[in-house]
């Protein structure tokens, strides 16, 4: 997965647009927001609540996408598009989504800890 886990171009542009302080706040909010959604998805799956599971998959897709977690957003979206009933999702699939959530948050943390890269103009101005 590596470089595909995050949409680095989107995150670099966001960071340049909002600045380091706001970017750090947004990344901290991702750490506050994504794990509870994952926990709620797990709970809905464990209780066989397919409708809640799909609603939470939609929430995860949007939350992940808004902070550049490309792979997590795509994985959540795949649950929404899957023709199988949500109740038939396997434990392995849920565990993989949990692992992807943790990996995404780790990648965001590492990116946030790196200094901002400033683009160099093609020619002096």
TrEMBL record:
GO terms for biological process, alphabetical: phosphorelay signal transduction system
InterPro entries: HPT_dom_sf (IPR036641), Sig_transdc_His_kin_Hpt_dom (IPR008207)
Keywords, sorted A to Z: Phosphoprotein, Two-component regulatory system
Phosphohistidine: residues carrying this PTM: 58
Domain HPt, chain residue ranges per copy: 19-118
PROSITE patterns: HPT (PS50894)
Entry-linked Pfam families: Hpt
GO molecular function: protein kinase activity
Protein name stated in the entry: HPt domain-containing protein
Organism annotation: Magnetospirillum gryphiswaldense (strain DSM 6361 / JCM 21280 / NBRC 15271 / MSR-1)
